[in-house]
Amino acid sequence: MKFFSTFRAKLILSIFPIVAGVVVVALILSEWKFSATYRKLFEEQFENQIAGLTQAKSKRQDALSSVLEKMAKNSEIISSMKTADYLKTVFILRPLLESLAQERLQNEFGQSPKKAGVTGLRPLNAPPEIKKEESKEVGRSPAIGGGLTAPFIALIDAKGEFVLNQRPRAGSADHVGRKSSKMPWLSNRQFAEILTEQQIGYLLMDSGERRSDQVREVFVTPLRDPETKAFLGAFAFGLPLPAMADRALFEQTKRSEFGEIMGGILVEGKLVSTTVPEDQKSIVAKAVTDSLAKSDKDKKEIVVPIRGVKHQLIYRVLNPESPFPQATQVNFFSLAPLEAEIRDLRRSGIAVGIVALGIALVLITITSRSLSGPVSQLVAATHEIERGNFDVRVPVAGDEMGRVSQSFNEMAAGLALQEKYRSVLNAVADRSVAERLLENREALSGELRDVTMLFCDIRGFTALTEHMQPHDVIELLNEHMTALTEVAYEHGGIVDKFVGDLIMVLFGAPVSTGNDAQRAVECSQAMMLRRRELNLTSKHPLEIGIGLASGNVVAGCMGSEQRLSYTVLGHRVNLASRLCGIAHAGEVIADAETVADLAKHIMTEPLPTMHLKGFSESIQPHRILMA
User: Fold this and answer.
1) Among residues 89, 59, 72, 74, which one has the least CA distance to residue 239?
2) From CA 148, how far away is CA 145, in angstroms rounded?
């Protein structure tokens, strides 16, 4: 146990936590930087993929929007929609849309319609006439129901109800002319109000168990009467959304040491992906759906546990402003390789920390030996200080320990000065007087000064304390004198002495402020107020009377060499005492000299002249009125 009290042990115990703290902080910063760099790389790859999707989307919009809007102005289509001849509208519109789909599929997929699975597409210049045999089979056209790359076509009336609902689910399509249902995304809103311009939505194509699901990007184009601008309805046209970027990113990152980045498109609560295992799709879809429900952010990063392994997931809504079904691009990767790297980093950091602590121990041992000599001198000097020898000093070297020695010497000088203050304060009643004595011992040996004296006495104190226990009397007086002394100091007064239940305060000695009488009167009013406040809570309420007198007196330190007391003597001092004696409870009585120096806002009331003991001439007292 003795070792732990030595300077060397304390130095070791001081340095070791610092070295350990530095190692821990460095390790934490390294882990944070490592994780941040990896997440930044993942986010950059995600942003690149989003940028590719956005660019592809922009190209499709540029290629399709103007063509679809031009179709919406077709006079035959407008005419048939105005007469609610939806069958005719479909047979006019469908060949145009199928031809447009054929053209776009060739541009985007680089393959013919037959190879892409699109059959029965009507040529662009096909006649719009409706044959009887065609009308019988209108809902079962292979162009509508067949193939993963078949276009999605739907016709919607002005109320938002499908009149051709070719929902992109394999092998199913509603017959033309049969209103299937109202658009589920309208809720209570009017279709015409939300479709003020062409909008883009996303739908899921359920391809069955043997084929993967597919996402369709659907352009919803409004139909309006060019003359009246009346809203007639809309038609929807959708093509497959390419998902090659997800597969390319997966294959690219699969060979990296941190594992592959998987991704897909979330539509209608289902994740469509060729890289995400089937048993993980529902977990990812639920996590993103819940996050979208809780947050209004279009882009967010979350951590999702999948099969007991944490995964970092980032998503972004592709069409946040659209009133139609939204699609969300989702990418995620496993944090297991990252956590493994962090564990290795921690092990390395701990090993480095242990080595650093060992080196620090050796250096501390060597350094502490060079410090033990000056420390021993400081210990010996400290014992001298304890014995009261404040003149002790230690040698000052030129190193860091020299600064400590210099600080010790300054401390010893300060303690000597404080002891000198204490000795002087034991001989005087007030600190300001002691400060003047320290500056010049002869300054307060005796002088004539114009002073205002304040005497404050408790009324009926003897009767009140006659039957009280001694310690209760002392406690009562201490509470009273402490409060009034604070008031005196607040107004610049010097507490001259305490005589029983009387307190004597000087204004103008040993230093005058030029308005001593004014401060004395304000102090007396404040004392009255403070006493009333104390009476509200004090066990023994007290009443006081105050006397004030101003004039020329002798001021100085009086007594013996062993005990001095700074006080004032003179005719005016006795007058202040007599005025205090005639003051009733709650009264402040002052002489004419004091009242003559008061400001106009202090109100006084003259009392009848009277003869006081010890004074040959009559005195004109004045009562100070409380504000």
Assistant:
1) 59
2) 9
Residues 345 and 329 in one domain: no
| Mean pLDDT value of segment 472-488 | 91
How many structural domains is the chain composed of?
5
Mean pLDDT (whole number) for 473-484? 91
Residue 8, token pair as written in the block: 């060397």
Q: For the domain that residue 549 is a member of, what is the CATH number?
A: 3.30.70.1230
pLDDT exceeds cutoff 70 at 571: yes
**Token pair for residue 401?**
């320990």
DSSP character string of 441-470:
TTTTS-EEEEEEEEEEEEETHHHHHTTS-H
Which residues make beta-bridge pairs with 152? 238
Question: What gap in Å lies between CA 393 and CA 413, rounded to an integer?
Answer: 9
State the DSSP H helix or E strand holding residue 535, giving kind and residue range, or none if neither: helix 516-535
CA pair distance 205, 145, nearest whole angstrom: 11
- Give the domain range for residue 160: 72-204+216-237
Residues 105 and 132 grouped into a single domain = yes
Same-domain status, 582 and 446:
yes
- Rounded to whole angstroms, what are the CA distances from 219 to 126, 127, 602? 23, 24, 90
Same domain, 405 and 512: no
Same domain, 492 and 602: yes
Q: What is the pLDDT of residue 409?
A: 81
Helix axes 7-71, 86-109, angle to 10 degrees: 130
Query: In terms of C-beta density within 10 A (0-12 exposed, 13-18 middle, 19 or more buried), how is residue 114 classed?
Result: exposed
- Bond prior to 222 in cis (omega within 30° of 0): no
* Span 298-334, pLDDT tens digits: 888 888 898 888 888 888 888 887 888 888 888 888 8
Q: From start to end of 245-321, where are the E strands? A: 262-267, 270-272, 299-306, 309-317
User: pTM value?
Assistant: 0.46
Q: Which residues pair with 266 in a beta bridge?
A: 271, 328
Residue 454: closest CA among 484, 428, 480: 484
Q: Are residues 301 and 248 in the same domain?
A: yes
Question: 342 Cβ partners below 8 Å, 6+ apart?
Answer: 31, 34, 35
HSE toward the beta carbon, residue 236, CA cutoff 13 A: 29
Number of C-beta neighbours around residue 480 at 10 A: 22
Facing residues of 164 across strands? 155
224-233, 325-334, 395-404: segment of lowest average pLDDT: 395-404
Residue 382 resides in a domain: no
Residues 26, 126 share a domain: no
What's the pLDDT band for 257 if we cut at 50, 70, 90? low
Distance between CA 401 and CA 375 in Å, rounded?
8
Compute φ and ψ for 396, nearest 5 degrees: -110, 115
